Amino acid sequence: MSTTRNVKPLIGLMGVASLLLAGCQGTEDSTASLYDSAYPPSTAAALADTSAANYDDNRYGLISGATLTHWIDDWAANKPAYISGELIIIQVSDGALTNAVDASCVDTNGDGTGVCKYFKPAPGVRSYSLGANTWSETRSNGVTETISVVPSGDKMDALLAAYDIDPRNDMIVFAMGYGGTSAAMQMGRAHYMFRYWGVGNKHVAMLNGGATHASVIPAGSRGTYLGEANSGVAPTGGTVTVRDLPRDNTILQATLGEMMAVARGEVANAFVWDARSAGEWGGNLLSTNASASDCVDVDDADGDGNVVETTSCKSALNGTVAGAVNLDYVQLLVTNDATENVGGTAANDPSYRYKDKATVSAMVDALGYTPGQTVYTFCRTTYRAMITGTVTGTILGYPTRYYDGAMVEWLQMANVTNKSGGENLPATSPWQTTALTDNLTYNTAAYVDTPVITDAYAASSDAVVAADRLYKSGSSASGTTAGSGSVALPANPCGG
Fold first, then answer.
1. N or C: which end of the chain has fewer CB within 10 A?
2. How are beta strands 125-129 and 87-93 bridged, if at all?
3. Is CATH 1.20.1250.20 the classification given to domain 14-244?
4. Could you give phi then psi for residue 350, rounded to 5 degrees?
5. Do the domains 251-469 and 14-244 match in fold?
C-alpha cells in the first residue's frame, strides 16, 4: 500500500465564481471548469463496458458464479494477470437464511442450524457483508436535499480504510448471498459508487445472481464457498484514498439541471429510461412515496374508510421526465427459475440473475434505443435504475448516466402547497419541473411531504458533483455538502 500522493491545487476555481455569477437560470449545469488537470474527465462512453455474449467469459463487470468460485479455489494461480492484490468479496445481503440449504452446509457454530450464508475467506480472499446504508447518503445538490445520492468522498475513503481496500491492485466483487430485487439494486449502487470515485473497470465486478441459487453455486458445492462466518472484523489501516485514483468519473451522475435540459430537448442523443412501474411512469395519483409517513389520509387512498389516519407522504407531482420511455426494471431479471426453498420462505427462490445479453439487447432496442445515444436512467431513488443502468452500461456497452436525485427529487420541484401549508417552491423559482413532466398529475396538499429546499434560487444544482471534485483534488477537507448524512433505506428502497 502506498501513501496518498500529493496533488496539485484545484485549477479553475474561478469557474466556481463564474457559476455563482451566472444568475438563477435553473436550466443547465456545467462544471467543466471544476476539473483538476491531475484527474482528467472521463466520458460516459469511455466508462461503458461491453459484456461477452456468455457471462461466464467476463472477468469484470458482470461475472458468473463459475468465475468467482474458480478464483476462490486458488486466487494466486487463477486471478487475472493484471491484478496484484487480493480478492475482496463484499456482500450487499446475507439473506434471512434460517434453513440448511443442502448437506454441504455444516453447523459450524453449534446452534443447530447449518446455513450457507456468507462467502468464506480463503488464501488471498477476504469477504464482508455490509448494510444498505453503505451505498447512499442524504446530500444537498444546492437547490434541494435528496434522500439517497452517491456517498461523499469522506464516506468512500472511510470504507477503503476500514476494509483495507486498494482498488488499484485488488479485485472487488459485489455479491448477493441470498438473491432478491433489493439486493440486486444495492449491488448496482455499490458498483456505481466505486466507479464514480475513479476505480478502474477491471477492478470491480458484480456476481450475476444470488450465491445460494443452484445456477450460481451448484447445490452440494455451496458449503465449499459459503458458510456461517466470513472474514469477521475488518483489518482497518488502509491508506489508499480516492485521490490515488487518477480519473474523474463524476460524469456518471446527471444533475437536476442537466435532466431539465434533457427534458427540454437541449441535449442531443439522449435516451431517457424510467425504470419504475408503468403506473408510476403513467402518473398514477400518490404513486411516488416521499421519505416521511405523517400525512393525513384525507381522501382514503387505501380504501379502509379511515380518513384521519396518517399515511406515507408523497411527492407533490406524479409522472415522469418529459420524453422518458418506460420498462420496469424487474423485467430484466430472471425470476422464473425458482427450484429450491433456500431462504425458508413460503415459496422457492428465483436467482435474480440478469437475462442473457441477446435478450436484454432486444428489449432495449424495442424501447427505441439507437446507437450513439447516451442513456439517462432513474427510478424513485435510482435504486431500481441500477438494474437498467447495469444492462445498458455494463452489459451492452452504451454510454450511461444516472439521474441520482431521481423522481423523489424531481416530483417535489413545484409551486404547490404541501402538508405544512407552505409552498414547495416560490412561483418565481427557476427549478420547477412541472412543465418538463409527462403524464403530470398533482397530489392533494395534505399528502405532500415538505421538501428540504436549500436554495430555491441557486445558480446551479451541481453542488454534489462540485464538492466531490473538490474533495478528490485535495482542495476540500470534506466531500460532504449541506445537509449531508447517511440514511438507512427500507428493505426495498425504490418500492419496486
1. N
2. parallel
3. no
4. -70, 165
5. yes
Residue 345 burial (CB count, 10 A): 12
Instruction: Name the packing angle between helices 463-473 and 153-162 (round to 10°).
Output: 50
Asked whether the beta carbons of 209 and 65 are under 8 A apart, the reply is: yes
SS3 109: coil
- Over residues 232-273, the pLDDT tens digits come to 888 888 999 999 999 999 999 999 999 999 999 999 999 999
| Per-residue pLDDT reduced to its tens digit, 402-417 | 999 999 999 999 999 9
CA distance 174 to 195: 13
pLDDT > 90 fraction of the chain, expressed in percent and rounded: 71
Compute the distance between CA of residue 251 and CA of residue 345 in angstroms, rounded to an integer: 41
| Cβ atoms of residues 193 and 185 within 8 Å | no
**Which of left, alpha, beta for 214 (phi over 0: left; psi -120 to 50: alpha)?**
alpha
For 431-448, the pLDDT digits (tens) are 999 999 999 999 999 999
Give residue limits of the domains in the chain.
14-244, 251-469
Whole-prediction pTM value? 0.89
- CA torsion 18-23-28-30 (nearest 10°) is 10
CATH architecture of 251-469: 3-Layer(aba) Sandwich (3.40)
Show the cell assigned to 280: 408510476
Q: What are the phi and psi torsion angles at 16 (to 5°)? A: -60, -45
Q: How far apart are CA 276 and CA 463, in angstroms?
A: 26
DSSP bridge pairs for 284: none
Angle made by CA atoms 32, 262, 249, in degrees to the nearest 5: 40
Question: CA-CA distances (angstroms) from residue 116 to 59, 107, 212, 228, 491?
Answer: 25, 9, 7, 6, 21
Comparing 290 with 181, the larger pLDDT belongs to 181
Q: Are 423 and 414 in contact (CB under 8 A)?
A: no
CA dihedral 356, 359, 361, 365 (to 10 degrees): -170
Summarize pLDDT for 367-397 with one digit per residue, the tens: 999 999 999 999 999 999 999 999 999 999 9
pLDDT of residue 116: 85
> For residues 62 and 360, is the Cβ–Cβ distance under 8 A?
no
Task: For residues 287 and 279, give the distance between their C-alpha atoms in angstroms, rounded to a whole number.
Answer: 7
In sign, the C-alpha dihedral spanning 275, 142, 145, 470 is positive
* Coil/strand/helix, residue 382: coil
Mean pLDDT for all residues in the chain: 87
